[in-house]
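Record 2-keto-4-methylthiobutyrate aminotransferase, 382 aa.
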Amino acid sequence: MSISSKLPQVGTTIFTTMSKLASDCGAINLSQGFPGFDCDPVLVDLVTKHMKAGLNQYAPMSGVPILREQIAVKTKLVYGVDLNSETEVTVVSGATEAIYAAVTAVVKQGDEVILFDPAYDCYAPAIELNGGVPVFVPLELPDFSVNWENVKSSISDKTRLIMINTPHNPSGYVWTQEDLDTLAELIQDRDILIVSDEVYEHITFDGREHLSLLTHPILRERTFVCGSFGKTFHVTGWKIGYCLAPLKLTEEFRKIHQFLTFSTATPLQYALADYLSEPFRYLTLPDFYQKKRDLFCDGLKNTPFKFTPAQGSFFQMVSYAHLSQESDYDLAVRLTKEIGVASIPISVFFSDKKDHKILRFCFAKDDPDLMKALGKLQNIKL
Ligand code: PMP
Ligand code: GLN
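=>
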């Protein structure tokens, strides 16, 4: 029997590869993006409480009402935007599901989808599996900002969707009001929808504000905003997130969601609903992560790398282009094996796998681990 792959170019993700290598080598794992510390024990107690109370059967397809309401309350508090929790909020099994369901809901055979290059790894496969055609618009190095002239010239009559990600993985670039306004201007008279991946919405630095696409009246009517509790509450292993979209888009989104996963773990939903009732739990996140970013960047000053502190997300990119021609993949593997610090080579995020000699480090780790990694990085030979 022969199988014709639907994704012939796709192998195992770099996150799995580097995390395994880190584990095999006993290295400090600053590669895959997940916190190296545990979540608040209060959250674990809440899940236990709801499990013990017997909330262990299927949740409603769109999410338990109290969690959808709490998500709407958070959205009002943080962005000043009113959402109808019945018709505009859907709880899903992680942002990955939200992204896949949103793309599947609207992309048909031959539709063009604009995405920025580099992009998070699940976007292009979602487009291709739905018969869509990814159209890559390169971001402008070194800050990974958007070149709007390039976006404009990439829009065609076939463009159905634009996929954005702010704060951006891997660069940390945070969209500005001008970015939002320019996007709105470009698409307002066209039949183009948006998927906005905002999983790092609560992780921005130096007083920068995350501008959700929900805050823009023109963009809001045509956007699926995808969020993740994994990032916000240090529970990436729970795989729980949400999709915020206007009624008509939510209707189509739920048609896909109900056949992908149908619903998301019930006790987790009740626990998160309780936990969200205290806004300080997400409002203090920028400060929490800024301390880690600053600690990491301070230490990086004693290494040969060049860098600009990240604007958002829990990733810091570093360049070694001025020192060596070694490929970023080879260097990431070598650093893991030889000095015991794992990172991600960012060439994997580019559609053409172009090597800009940049590595990505995740600083969502305990301070002693960050210090230890920095100590090792000071001694590297490039
Ligand atoms: N989008 C981006 C930009 C990410 O970095 C990640 C990784 N966690 C996801 C989506 C997936 O989020 P989740 O784990 O909630 O599926
Ligand atoms: N988002 C995480 C990262 O960028 C990885 C999540 C995953 O492994 N799927 O590192």
